[in-house]
Amino acid sequence: MRTTVGIIGAGPAGLLLARLLRGAGIDTVVLEARDRAYVEQRQRAGILEQGTVDALRAAGAGARMDREGLRHDGIELRFDRRRHRVDFPALTGGRSVMVYAQTEVCKDLIALQLAEGGPLLFGAEALAVEDADTGRPRVRFRHRGREDVLECDYVAGCDGFRGVSRTAVPAGVGQVFERTYPFAWLGILADVPPSHHELVYARHDRGFALLSMRTPSVSRLYLQVPEGTKPEEWSDADIWRELERRFETDDDWTLRRGPVTRKSVTSMRSHVHEPMRYGRLFLAGDAAHIVPPTGAKGLNLAVGDVVTLARALAHEKETGSAALLDAYSATCLRRVWQAERFSHDMTGLLHRAPDATPFEDRLQLARLERLTTSRAAETDLAEAYTGFPLD
């Protein structure tokens, strides 16, 4: 099998890249280790930056998002039993975010790829990327019980942190920067309408809490818990009681309870691999970088990567110049490090470290006071949250 761009991974990054390259007249084959049902059901991100929304619309994948997605024009910060709303459009010249689950983005892109795009092979496990440093890279994969080879001009590694793309970069090539955090998120999905119309980020002496949503009838909520926590260690009743404590305010706001349909624990870490390219292998999304989820940047960074890569490949096709491809890693990393900075700052602002001192607690509150009383500080948060430019 041969194609121009072999794409490993049918998450949002790989699927959007295939869609963008189709528009540029560039052939692709997408290999996905899991089956279609798994890809369309795995719970991941749910906040789309303005640039991600614009990119999906431009790719012809925004119709259902615009019908069913929930535009959000701000977030609420809670601390010391007080509430403060950050107004995105007023601070950013009209930018906002969209609540639309990654599962739904994948469903939309899969339907388009199967109807209009090149081959999308589910159950096709990539085994290795070979000869990435030559002009004829190859992807060895297993599909329907037999091994095959996909010959490409380029390989896009969109298969996440544990995929074969990242491990295809030889040891000693580039540098890894990372940090792990001594806490995690216990997340639940609940069949209950959200208790607030926008996301609520709460700093509390007992730890961080986040009120989010998937739809007008499904809530997504998170609690900061110690690293290593198992979901089954928390009963539904204990989760609701703790959420109520951490979201408490001095007004009459109340938290709606409902049946918990899913529990999970998310580790908190930061990871960046530099460069994001090895020969003709280009890393995108979690294969190249991971951010803690506090800033809602993971999916959006992946979209930024593939938009950049698609533009570079289209430029090479149209002009014969590899200048944009050669600049791919540096171009992406500028956005990546700003997102890492923002996600780290948000994490430190809202989470309580296990060994936090009273001095550090007061510093957190002072930072929140500054954020909620300074338009300049508030603007910095709003600009970062709604997304850094993809250009």
Automatic annotation (TrEMBL):
UniProt EC number: 1.14.13.2
Pfam annotation, one family: FAD_binding_3
UniProt keyword annotations, A-Z: FAD, Flavoprotein, Oxidoreductase
Enzyme class, first EC level, given as a word: oxidoreductase
SUPFAM superfamilies: FAD-linked reductases, C-terminal domain, FAD/NAD(P)-binding domain
Gene Ontology MF, one: 4-hydroxybenzoate 3-monooxygenase activity
Domain FAD-binding per the UniProt entry, residue ranges: 2-343
InterPro entries: FAD-bd, FAD/NAD-bd_sf, RIFMO-like
Record flagged with keyword Flavoprotein: yes
Oxidoreductase as UniProt keyword: yes
Top-level taxonomic group: Bacteria
Cross-referenced PANTHER family: P-HYDROXYBENZOATE HYDROXYLASE (PTHR43004:SF3), TRK SYSTEM POTASSIUM UPTAKE PROTEIN (PTHR43004)
Protein name (record): p-hydroxybenzoate 3-monooxygenase
Organism: Streptomyces calvus
